[in-house]
Write a structure and sequence with these properties.
This protein folds into two domains: about 10-175, no CATH class; about 195-305, Leucine-rich Repeat Variant, CATH 1.25.10.10. Strand 5 (about 105-110) and strand 6 (about 120-125) form a beta hairpin. The chain has a seven-stranded mixed beta sheet with strand order 1-2-3-7-8-4-9. The chain is an alpha+beta fold. Helix content is about 40%, strand content about 15%. Helix 1 (about 10-25) packs across helix 4 (about 135-145) and helix 6 runs antiparallel to helix 7 (about 215-220). About 35% of the residues are buried.
Length: about 300
């Protein structure tokens, strides 16, 4: 837990530091990340919003993650009853806005082998994330100039991992969003003047897999970015797309030969090898389930307006 007696820098300086550090570390998937498997005791930060501990400390929790700047994520398995309880607990968090993101499943986490334990794969049904006081969402919103990413706890439900849409009883006081909403928000960061934000936005979009049908075009656009860090990271994430990124090969080959930065040339070479060898197995995406989710979210919003 953070020592509250340590004097913190002034607000403008803190925001600047947040903008540089939290986005950079988020790109490495929370570089100082720790994972605790099982129902280990949760030690909340003293700045957690009221009700968050009650929402995350559920019997169905199988994994807890702890990252930079007090970022935390909790993963759960369960049934209709435990999900309904989780939704009610989440809705009870004292926060200005609570978003529930609904995505097609499955979302799987692999537990590495331990002492006397074999490796195991879990199909996660829902996740609760809180970025903490210094989260990347706050940095993003500051740089982009609008509240586009949630700075409050969020819950993600993975439909198809033992969850059916008609089993999701949405409590009052929450906002439902889907991957299309997230893509629209991420796209806003591509034109930001801040290099870190453009880098982060590119990574978030390309990590959405086949859902983003224009991903190759976005990759080509961002590979021409003025920032070497943006070009390098986009090269890396383009390589993960596998054969779907074949149309990006001419741009990557140009960077591999002509880019003035060695780190960009190396990243482009590796991406080319992955795409040509199909080393990267691009994620599959359930577009039928996504269409049902979008309809579900839209109907929920209409019902709220009509109440």
């Amino acid at each position: 837990m953070r020592d509250s007696s340590v004097r913190k820098p002034s607000t403008p300086l803190r925001i600047f530091v947040i903008a540089v550090l939290s986005i950079a570390l988020s790109l490495s998937v929370h570089a100082m990340q720790e994972m605790a498997w099982g129902k280990y005791p949760i030690h909340p930060d003293d700045k957690w919003p009221k009700g968050l501990l009650e929402a995350v400390d559920q019997e169905s929790r199988f994994c807890s993650e702890y990252g930079n700047f007090d970022w935390v994520a909790f993963h759960y398995q369960g049934n209709e009853e435990s999900l309904s309880l989780a939704l009610r607990k989440f809705a009870g968090i004292d926060a200005p806005r609570l978003e529930i993101i609904i995505k097609p499943g499955p979302f799987k986490l692999k537990r590495p082998p331990g002492v006397g334990e074999a490796a195991r794969e879990y199909a996660c049904i829902w996740t609760i994330v809180y970025e903490g006081e210094y989260g990347s969402a706050k940095s993003w919103n500051f740089q982009v100039g609008k509240q586009s990413l949630s700075e409050h706890p969020t819950m993600t439900i993975y439909v198809g991992s033992g969850v059916k849409l008609d089993e999701v009883e949405v409590p009052p006081g929450v906002v439902l969003i889907h991957m299309g909403d997230m893509l629209q928000r991420y796209t806003e960061g591509l034109d930001c003047e801040n290099d870190w934000i453009r880098q982060y936005a590119s990574a978030l979009i390309l990590k959405m897999g086949p859902f983003v049908k224009d991903a190759p075009k976005i990759a080509i656009r961002m590979l021409a970015d003025k920032s070497a860090d943006v070009r390098r990271h986009v090269s890396v994430f383009t390589g993960y797309m596998g054969k779907r990124a074949e149309s990006v090969l001419p741009m990557l080959e140009k960077l591999a030969e002509d880019d003035p930065q060695e780190k960009v040339r190396k990243a482009a070479f590796k991406a080319i090898d992955k795409i040509k060898s199909d080393e990267a197995q691009d994620a599959k995406f359930d577009f039928d389930t996504q269409a049902k989710i979008e309809k579900f979210v839209l109907n929920h919003a209409k019902n709220k307006i009509g109440q």
